Amino acid sequence: MPIVTIQVTDEGVSKAQKAELIKRSTEMLSQVLDKDPQTTFVVIEEVNLDNWGVAGLPALAFREKFNK
Questions:
Q1: Is the per-residue pLDDT at 68 higher than 90?
Q2: Which residues are identified as catalytic?
Q3: Which pTM does this prediction carry?
């Protein structure tokens, strides 16, 4: 019984996009690991941007520094 957790920032991921993530993750596990889609769980966690960092910086500071 695979469980996949996908974390994204809470910046407007739509219901349709979430559904697509669930569908494709389930299909991938079925194809690659021969797992039953009926027993595959996908959890999408939306993380507040204030709680997200990369390269030692809060996400917003990283964007300001590298997306000029």
A1: no
A2: 2
A3: 0.83
Concatenated DSSP letters for 10-48? SS---HHHHHHHHHHHHHHHHHHH---GGG-EEEEEEEP
Q: How many domains does the chain have?
A: 1
d(CA 40, CA 1): 6
Residues whose CB is less than 8 angstroms from the CB of residue 67 and which lie 6 or more positions away in sequence, other chains included:
none
Task: Find out whether 42 and 29 touch, Cβ atoms under 8 Å.
Answer: no
The boundaries of the domain holding residue 8 are: 3-66
CATH of the domain at 37: 3.30.429.10
Confidence check: pLDDT of 67 > 90: no
Question: Whose structure tokens read 């000029």?
Answer: 68
